[in-house]
Write a structure and sequence with these properties.
Layout: E1 7-12, H1 16-27, E2 32-36, E3 49-51, H2 52-60, H3 63-67, E4 77-78, E5 81-82, H4 85-88, E6 97-99, H5 102-115, E7 120-122, E8 125-131, E9 136-141, E10 148-157, H6 164-169, E11 173-176, E12 181-188, E13 195-200, E14 203-209, E15 215-221, H7 235-246, E16 254-262, E17 265-268, E18 272-273, E19 276-278, E20 284-285, H8 292-313, H9 319-347, H10 353-362, H11 366-377, H12 387-392, H13 402-410, E21 422-425, H14 431-442, E22 446-451, H15 455-467, E23 471-476, H16 484-500, E24 507-510, H17 527-548, E25 557-561, H18 574-594, E26 600-606, E27 609-610, H19 619-626, E28 635-636, H20 637-648, E29 659-662
The structure holds NADP nicotinamide-adenine-dinucleotide phosphate and ligand P7K.
Amino acid sequence: MDGALDTDVIVVGAGPVGLTLTGELRTGGVRTVTLERLTAPTTESRASILHARTMALLAERGVLDRLGPLPGGGSGHFGGIRLDLAAATSGHPFAGQWECPQTRVEAVLQEWVTDLGAEVRRGHAVTGLTRHTDWVEVDVRVPGGRPCRLRAAYLVGCDGERSTVRRLAGYDLAGVDATRQMLRADVTGVDIPDRRLQRLPNGVVTAYRRADGTTRLMVRRHGRHPRAGAGVPDFAEVVTAWAEVTGEDIGHGVPRWLNRFDDTSRQVSRYRLGRILLAGDAAHVQMPIGGQALNLGLQDAINLGGKLTARVTGGAGDEVLDSYHDDRHPVGTRVLTNIRAQALLLFGGPETDALRDTVAELMGIDAVRSHLARMISGLDIQETTPVSDVRTGSGTPAPGDRTNRSASTDRSSTMDRLNGKTALVTGSSRGIGRATAQRLAREGALVAVHYAANEDAALETVTSIESDGGWAFPVRAELGVPGDVHNLFLALEEGLKERTGDTTLDIVVNNAAETAPAGVPPEDITPEQFDRYFAVNARAPFFIVQRASSLLPQGGRIINISSGLTRCANPDQAVYAMTKGAIEQISLHFARHLAPRGITVNTVAPGITDNGSAVFGMPEVVEQMARLSAFNRVGDAGDVADVVTFLATDEARWITGAFIDASGGTLLGQ
Ligand code: NAP
Ligand code: P7K
């Protein structure tokens, strides 16, 4: 069938969202054709603010290097009330907001996708579409040529708030119509004072004189309802409004640019209809406040890019595309909500004064500022399937396995139970350690990702955390050799100091271990093997605790990873199980030793858990292993990591010295 298709994915729209999606797809080896109605990129400057999460995602793709150094975009605001984004997200590598005109973003993205071999056809407008079971066909009007048809497996509308794809595909756009409207103009030849959102009895005005002598002004009249279908305003309308609100006459000025925008707030209720998907403003229409629309759109594109790649090339099923909707629809709803709240604070009449004063008072509280700043900067977003996991395929679970996980992650979109904390997770390049590092970071902790040798995997853990808006750094140290723990702490302390200014370590997870998945019959274990198991699994964790002790503050956490094998026999794992028996003793005795300092020490014992190793790709073996659990499946790394993360939070302050069975009921017996 694929032979009959012109391409894998047709992307409609070559604005920032369409180009970013094109780049993601090309990076993953997906064939694309990108269609753009306009013959040349727009020169009109629209969005200009990039937020921290977008910056991290662009950096990861090398796009930020192409953009060159960007100036800071000022402090930021929430509904016109000053909010210093940089201060409130300090610690993040891109804390703050960054200034870059949309025209420049587009030019650089165009360069990037061209280098990736993408074909962007300008002047090509989509005029019709037809759905088939295995493909989508679009009619395209070509400048000066005969109309043509293109077939692809998927079609994505990145064609903005008046999306043609959305209309042709019959999407519904739910939400509310505009109740407030703003007029904007660039005017020369006027001399009026600069004003930053001045609230006057009849309305709200802004004026800002640029170096070139033009003044950008914006005016809103209270009590005026937007005229449906009103197009570009004429200058007379702006002059009248300005006079009504300020009493000033600007009628002698020369208009250079005129524009009208309103607070329409709408979102499609499904981001996917079969083989047709939407991203960016095509999926959500909102008022341009706080520069959030561009960032939201770029992040839609990046989420969808990884998933569509997995669908087209990686053999993932349709559920991976549904997870795009599941991830991004709630994020869109949340942004639309904060924009509406901000619109009310910004443009509401005198009836909103008391509300504004109250919000301003709340914004004097650190935690409130941090909450709002993380929301605006996209740093509180949880995506069920991390982008890099989709790429490697390792994070794409079998269909049935998803339910448990999403239920737990859907519960709240804000997770910041570990803000300001630091954590060491040994052996977090892969498996349970990686999932633990990711979750601790998602809760706001700075995570040291420790590993022995597998540098690429460790960096992938770090990158996945960063693209999720988190903060992490790699630490290499082989355990079980002389000087192991000393070397680990030299690198750890340096990394912490560089990032936080001191060496406080709040959370230690002793996870790294020497394992033999198939085991060794007890007859065959050599003294050298025995010593190696103990050196890595028991001696190193002890000295890690001993060394961490001086860095742990009040409220610190130590979590030791054991195994259900300390309660359930498997002779081929006898020596491994002995080492796990030993690590459990650390929890018991140190729990007593460190309790006076408010530090808890606990054991988590997983059962058989998918750590991404080859056996978990063999259905017959997995079926055997699954039988050990009362739930008849093997654990996900995330199943265990969620338990570890809970123990790290303040909610677990009353648990110490405990053995927590995280084996899905494996220890209940048959
Ligand atoms: P895994 O996928 O095998 O990964 C092991 C991790 O530990 C890697 O990050 C590895 O680093 C690191 N590591 C191994 N030996 C090391 C050494 N000598 N020095 C420093 N780092 C070393 O692990 P996992 O299966 O997720 O297991 C994690 C923990 O859960 C272990 O304590 C294990 O005993 C326990 N557990 C696992 C299961 C299970 O079924 N998976 C069941 C019960 C208990 P590199 O990548 O650099 O090699
Ligand atoms: C069990 C492990 C088992 C476990 C076998 C196992 C088992 C386990 C395990 C192999 C491994 C009851 C827990 C409870 C491979 C390792 C990790 C591990 O049979 O959890 O610890 C060593 O990599 O069997 C009754």
